[in-house]
Amino acid sequence: MGRILIVATGGTIASTPEGSGLTPTLTGRELAARVPLLDTLCELDFVQPLNIDSTNMRPRDWLRIAAVIREAYDRYDGFVILHGTDTMAYTAAALSYLIRDSEKPIVLTGSQQPMANPFTDAKLNLYHSVLYACDPASRDVSVVFGGEVICGTRARKQRTMSFNAFTSMNFPPLAYVRGDRVVRSAVPAPGEKDGRRPRFTDALDDRVIVLKLTPELRPSIFELLAPDYDAVILETFGIGGIPAYDGAYQRAIFDWVGSGRTLVVTTQVPEEGLDLGVYEVGRAYADRRGILRGDDMTTEALVAKTMWTLGQTRDPDEVARLFYEPVNHDRSVQQR
Known about the structure:
Oligomer: single chain
Order of helices and strands: EEEHEHEHEEHEEEEEEEEHEHEHEHH
Number of helices: 9
Strand content: 15-25%
Strand order of the largest sheet: 4-1-5-7-8-9-12-13
Helix content: 25-40%
Structural class: alpha/beta
Number of strands: 18
Distance between the termini: 47 Å
Shape: globular
């Protein structure tokens, strides 16, 4: 029987009604005790590094969770992180970069309804997560929710109330949980585990912001952002359109990267990704030093990867190398 460490961080799954609304109060051990047959799957241990609404989850908390896993890594066969749903996709992506190439599963889950709710989805999500973490073929960071296993860099919360809250963006689910079985997708097939050590890092640059283009958004916004941010993730129109009617955006963006800052170009369209080479309004930015292309990555993964990349280096060429290196299936391999 394997050993799984449950890392409880709060969220809806742990919440109970308080005077001002739902508030995380239950511990990981208390949550597990309410799930029938959970203790028959494996040996469970518990740790509670924080107990917060995931709206309050910050990059410093991602580092704290990663440190818990790093310290316990050799003593357990897998990890299940109980987390609020609102920022779960950000945390899953961040852990994918902070703990690369893990041969042990690191699973995030939570629920749309608290564990105490009579119609909760919490019991099944927690059971499925431990079941998946116990499977010898499981590895890397993933989200297990609503019967699906989603790569940690491809998860997005798509629905605010339904039990199938998460979807896998631009990449197939890794597996499905059916009863007591893990049914894996044909791609990507998990490789053989060879005992390699995961690559841990413990530095992030949290001075990263997402900026969504809207009609008549003033390009002077870049000047306002400069004192507080090192990188902008720019959600463009369509496949990569940036307004070109008077040249102001091009000047503002070239000044931004010319100052040593980073710009990541992505699209605000959820599916199928970016291609700056299609339209004239995007081509000017395609090969500029300091401008990175998000391709088909999720915005959540782009935020985490940009913070992680800038936490390692500020050299533009090294930033680009790290950024374009695929990690946990975060991007489709592109010809450059």
